[in-house]
Amino acid sequence: MQCLKHCCSPLGRQQEAYWLQYRSNEKALFQRTAEIHAKVLAAENVKQFFGFVALDENDKAQLREYQASNAIPSSKWSQITGVYLYRENKGLPLYSRLHKWVKGMMEDRADVNGKEQDQFLL
Question: What is the pLDDT of residues 43-91, one digit of tens each?
Fold first, then answer.
């Protein structure tokens, strides 16, 4: 079964191993960050309701270090959630839906910056 997987994959063995490592790291970082973001947002909402929030020292430190601006819109969740098959963009690998979303955001910013510069040239 493992041989068939490697024969059908568009990736070489080492690139597939890297992809698996990337996805594992992204998942772990995403989970830790989501936990803190949810805690910070929940603390802000509880504080708005009660006027204070009871936090332990670790939670207080996290609140000082991180700020949750707002809840994340469902449109963003939809863009990074779901089954993902390996893709490339301009010859560069996109290792996950989150990676694809970030690259798309960066290209959008570059397009906007390019258009702004074009306006100054006119």
Answer: 988 999 999 999 999 999 988 898 776 778 888 888 887 766 667 777 7
| Alpha carbons 35 and 80: distance in angstroms, whole number | 17
According to DSSP, residue 91 is labeled T
**10 CB contacts (<8 Å, ≥6 apart)?**
86
SS3 label, residue 88:
strand
Phi-psi region of 116 (alpha: psi -120 to 50; beta: other; left: phi over 0): alpha
Task: Please give the torsion angle defined by the CA atoms of residues 84, 90, 92 and 98, in that order, rounded to the nearest 10 degrees.
Answer: -40
Least confident segment among 19-28, 72-81, 94-103, 104-113: 104-113
End-to-end CA distance of the chain: 60
Distances (CA, A) of 47 to 55, 62, 72: 11, 15, 19
Contact between 65 and 50 under an 8 Å Cβ cutoff? The reply is: no
